[in-house]
Amino acid sequence: MNAQNHEPIWNQTRHLKEYPPLSQNESTEVAIIGGGITGITAAYLLQKAGKQVTIVDQGRFLNGTTLHTTAKITAQHGLIYDQLINSYNYQTARHYYEANHEAMQLIQSLIQDEQINCDLQQHDAYLYTETTEGITKIEKEFEAYDRLNINSQLADSIPFNLEIEKALIMKNQWQFNPTAYLSYLIQRLDQGSTKLYEHTAARTIEEKSVIMEDNTELTADRILICTHFPFYTENKLFSTRLHAEKSYVIAFPTADPYPGGMYLNIDSPKRSIRETTINDQSYILFGGEGHKVGQGEDMSTHYDALKRDAKAIFSKQPIDYQWSTQDLVTVDKIPYIGPVSKEQPHILLATGYRKWGMTNGTAAAKMMADDVLNKTDHKQNIFSPSRSSVTKGITSFIKENTDVTKHLLKNKLSHPKGDLEALNPGQATTLLLHGQRKGVYKADTDQIYMVDTTCTHAGCEVNWNSAEHTWDCPCHGSRFTYKGEVIEGPAKENLHHEQFSIIDLMKLNASQDNK
Ligand code: FES
Predict the structure, then answer these.
(1) So where are the chain's domains?
(2) pLDDT digits (tens, 9 = 90+) for 348-374
């Protein structure tokens, strides 16, 4: 059972022309940095409202976290509403639900208005447990749904070969194809007044100017930072306010009739199930195995676990796609959306969607667009990046996440010794070269790309992602190509890299052994 494509299934429907980089200084009313669901949706809403918008991305549009989603459009975000009522209050839980419910409605109405062909389907969302301990948690969440007047019901079974104890159904949620949807919105931006630039990496902000890595400047009245991990935080230490979680998805065709629904368990390990149709072929998306970065097993272990469990439920499953994703989680599970600081209200950021980027990202786009258009939305307060609950929670958050640091330190001090001769084309390993940990990727029979595995953001050690052929940083989610080029920040600089012939590298490696 070998995966054919080490890429997200949504790549099949990502139909985009390539846009040029920003090559000279420009000014605009609204500058949007980051071309995922948040940036694209905000640009669409602002263009529609008559604003002059410029959107830039450091790589290609729709190539980051948005591409790696399972694309459930739901306000059922795991167990959260009972916790929000207890940790905060009813009003906070209400606002969180309303923001996400409205985001769901916005996506739906936009698809209807624009007649977008993106496989939008209505399904119930299920949260289930296979353990007796989970029953109370499900029942408490149901009580919270009831208080919030969410259309829901409890069930004792789900339509799969799984012995469950209890399920909580949130009725009438949605799912879609995210790249079909967003590719269409990008086309609409292109046909409208919005300027689009790719391969344009923002480095910092000075006053009202976004400074790019080649020092070109984009000056704007308002600046929206929609870059997964914010590339600019005005000295706020977001590294202590966000942690990254990794999870995995496999996709396989099925001839089994799918019973409908989107599923997520509350137990560990996590399992997520939905169906999608791409080019007339029905696929099951089977995901989970989430863990804090730096605490996972070898990637193949996580994929093997998904394949084993999928096999127990679905009859036929040659795996066609597999991919992993890194999501950011905030101190209190509520995303940060709003002004980067009180002193710089013209700069807004959005991050920390906790794996629920389709609705949280759309909610963020709506809130940021409303802010630019001077519309007041009281719900925004619970998402404010400078809310007091965040400051209070940071100490325990850091304590909880020190184990991540320990893992990273262990990784840094380990002395890898990869076997270059055993490396096949398309494989990578790490080795110690003259006291420095290096990552080497064999591109073909002769060419080797070697990178310094020290992440250029804050010095953690990157690990090889054998599924997507990238070097991924476990600390805050930066990803680099096998050549060391930044795909996704917060890292702004490429990994230091060199290209060798295999013979030269083996000679170099052997020379240090002989010393
Ligand atoms: Fe922060 Fe790598 S992303 S150290």
Answers:
(1) 428-513
(2) 999 999 999 999 999 999 999 999 999
